[in-house]
């Protein structure tokens, strides 16, 4: 009997392959992104007795996508910090994160994980808005105009994203109290590194 994850796998795989085709050979890896943030990368143990099979399959996919969002965030951060000499431009970031958001939105979540998914997608959208606003501030400044208000407004998006990621962590810890330390570490590591800038 095919499960919901089996039915969702083909369209998700096709979307993932399309996203992967956008990756240039010299793209940052997941491990490089974690190293750049000076953070460990604990992996999810889907065999934990704390998850149903459906939840384990969903969380495995979810955290794979979170890892990709971390890579994209780090590439954009590097681009801004290096004044466009390294990393990926805002346009590249926008295109790739929009694809990731579409994949995340299409990932069928078990009922009790739907709010986790919604908050996570909203947090990534807030990070996208943060980088968009930063880019806008640079454009305003390059035009010789006062860009202080635009720069300050970036913080609103960063705080909103952080708040949502903390909520995701809290919900995962509440939903899966028997998931074990390995999974508690995986929840923390993924969401912390996605939150950090």
Overview of this protein structure:
By secondary structure, this protein is mainly α. It has one domain (4-20, 30-37, 49-195). Helices cover 73% and strands 0% of the residues. The N and C termini lie far apart (44 Å). Residues 20-25 have low confidence and may be disordered.
Order of helices and strands: HHHHHHH
Distance between the termini: 44 Å
Which class do the helix and strand fractions yield?
mainly alpha
Total number of helical segments?
Answer: 7
Low-confidence stretches: 20-25
Domains, number: 1
Instruction: Please bin the fraction of helical residues.
Output: over 70%
Please describe the structure with a list of short key phrases separated by commas or semicolons.
197 residues; mainly alpha; elongated
In short:
This protein is mostly helical.
Secondary structure: elements and pairs:
Layout lengths: L3 H18 L8 H7 L16 H29 L8 H17 L7 H29 L5 H28 L5 H15 L2
């Amino acid at each position: 009997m095919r499960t919901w994850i089996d039915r969702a796998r083909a369209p998700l795989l096709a979307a993932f392959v399309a996203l992967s085709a956008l990756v240039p050979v010299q793209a940052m890896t997941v491990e490089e992104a974690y190293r750049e943030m000076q953070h460990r990368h604990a992996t999810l143990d889907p065999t934990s007795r704390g998850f149903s099979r459906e939840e384990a399959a969903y969380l495995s996919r979810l955290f794979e996508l979170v890892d990709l969002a971390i890579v994209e965030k780090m590439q954009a951060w590097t681009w801004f910090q290096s004044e466009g000499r390294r990393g990926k431009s805002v346009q590249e970031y926008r295109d790739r994160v929009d694809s990731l958001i579409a994949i995340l939105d299409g990932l069928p979540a078990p009922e009790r994980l739907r709010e986790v998914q919604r908050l996570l997608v909203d947090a990534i959208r807030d990070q996208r808005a943060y980088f968009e606003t930063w880019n806008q501030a640079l454009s305003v400044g390059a035009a010789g105009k006062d860009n202080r208000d635009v720069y300050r407004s970036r913080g609103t998006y960063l705080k909103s994203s952080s708040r949502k990621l903390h909520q995701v962590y809290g919900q995962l810890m509440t939903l899966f109290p028997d998931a074990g330390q390995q999974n508690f570490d995986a929840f923390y590591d993924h969401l912390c590194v996605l939150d950090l800038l």
